Amino acid sequence: MLSEEVSRAIIDERLLDIINFDIDGMTRTTYESVRRNVDFETVMKNVHYFIDYRKAVKKKKPQIRVTIIKMQPTEKEIPDFTRYWSPLVDKVDVSDYNTWLGTKPDLNVGRSLEKSQKGSFDFACVHPWDELVIAADGKAGLCCLDYDLKAEVGDISRQSIKEIWQGEAINRYREAMLRGEYPSLPVCCHCNAHIYQKDRLGEAAAGLKHHFEIKIPAIYF
Ligand code: SF4
Question: CA-based, 20 to 30 A from 217: which of 2, 21, 34, 116?
Fold first, then answer.
């Protein structure tokens, strides 16, 4: 899909602020075992063309990010991945693996879905404050992980986006999350994305504390 022509159009016509390439692996074997029916060499060639073209025309946008998901098949390649891409792109991200609400095998490294969920419902997931997912038929859902919109929060054929965003349905989810009531929420009870967010906020706070040598207060939700 990311042909040279499409890359040039995205950059020349300033169509995006940020572009992210999910490249799960540093080798053909790993990448193609994770991302089925895609050719590793073609992906690498296309991404390199995008990077080189943006550099050639001296543009800063879109910001270029590459992401690898930390999971059992990719874990060993993450150091090489970071070393390889860091000098080439604006941001390298190592994402956490999730099971898409329990529909995929648990390939987490060092922490199972079950273990990470036990007794840890003390953090509000940011997704319902951060994004609104709208399906092709107009239905609005809670977050991108709820891909078939089981947690429906509105419908743009009947409501404005503002009405949905400030509506009772989505606010019920937000309030339940602030109370840590994930087990009572039909989709969130199968998800551990909020646990990762908690870990990441903790890491970010620790990094800031170290960087600025200031005392950061505890954050409670
Ligand atoms: S807990 Fe999971 S399913 Fe629920 S809103 Fe957050 S990311 Fe979505």
Answer: 116
pLDDT tens digits, 54-93: 999 999 999 999 999 999 999 999 999 999 999 999 999 9
Q: Is 194 close to ligand 1, i.e. is its CB under 6 Å away? A: yes
| Maximum C-alpha span of the chain | 53
H or E stretch at 92? strand 91-96
Token readout for 13 is 């016509």
| Ordered strands of the 133-134 beta sheet | 133-134, 139-141, 152-155
β-strand partners of 140: 134, 154
Ligand 1 closest atom vs CA 185: 4
Q: Which ligand 1 atom is the nearest neighbour of the CA of 177?
A: 1
pTM for this structure? Answer: 0.74
User: DSSP per residue over 133-191, as a string?
Assistant: EE-TTSEEES-TTSTT-SSEEEETTTS-HHHHHTSHHHHHHHHHHHTT-GGGSTTGGG-
